Amino acid sequence: MSEPIIEKLAKASHWESNHASIWLATMLHLRRNVERFKFPAKLDLNRRQQLVSLLGKELKELKSLGPLTLFKAEDLTAHEKELMIEHFFSHENILPAHQGEAFVLNEESQFFFFFFFHEHIHLHLIVYSVDI
Questions:
Q1: Contact 37, 51 (CB under 8 A)
Q2: Domain containing 78: what range?
Q3: Is residue 125 within 8 Å of residue 89, measured between CB atoms?
Q4: What is the reported pTM?
Q5: pLDDT tens, position by position, 76-95
């Protein structure tokens, strides 16, 4: 069921388009919590799932982000999560992600949101250039 994430990341591989021996990458992290909701560690599973649906729907309606795909953590294998860590040079350990947590990727796989690790929303953006 979650095969599209492997295809999505493979198509947007940093390594495939890298022809230089050195290239620059910039990473941005933005972490936020949603007002009127308890912090993630205090939310029960039903509220987490409700908020994942709500946040995913709101993000998908933002036309400036382009087409987005939501992946529920429980539908991803450890291998797929590891691919995301590698693709985004993430320092965040997402391997233990489970039910009530999710990821949203844009079409170019330049950024992804993860829901409910330490904050409600964590945006991880990577911009890279092979032109030095």
A1: yes
A2: 3-129
A3: no
A4: 0.72
A5: 888 888 887 777 767 777 77
